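Supplementary Note 3. Input sequence used for the single-chain structure prediction.
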Amino acid sequence: MNIAKLKIRGTIKRLFKSYPRELLDRWGDVIQDEAIRTIQPYRVIMSYVSLPNEVPTFKILKKVLEDNKILLVPKTVGEDIIPVRIESLDELSPGAFNVLEPYSSEAYDTKDLEAIIVPGIAFNTKFHRIGHGKGHFDRFIKLLPDKVLKIGLAYDFQIIEEDFIDEWDEEMDIIITEKRRIER
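The predicted structure, written as discrete structure tokens, is reproduced below.
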């Protein structure tokens, strides 16, 4: 167990509570708009379905569907994430960890995946992320083709300078906040 990550998770969770919901919502719109611009050239996109304490993704999900692109969302099965294609947000219901997940468990082949939007509790400027501690996304990302663009969404207060990498951590290619875009 990485003690530094535990401390960071606690700090960020406290920071979340210090911001009014209206401000987080406004920042979330800015972040989602930039994410939509970033994924515009891509046809097969995967995104997390946001929880209240994460950067929202519903605007992104709706835009991908409106543009008739292929939208994959994660479904947690045991210790693994499987990518499932949805064609409507109505195909989602509360699943593991109370996250909205697709009803279907039919895995979509990731060989055609072009971009993935990944949640995180914190990110650093070296493109590492801290998730919720279960390792689901790190294990999933490790299996993806190298060509897949990995995009982390975060509020700027979730960006830290501290190093916290573990050997299993996967790196992002781009991190988008309401104030900046950090890319390789």
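Residues 21-39 form the longest helix (19 residues). The longest strand covers residues 70-77.
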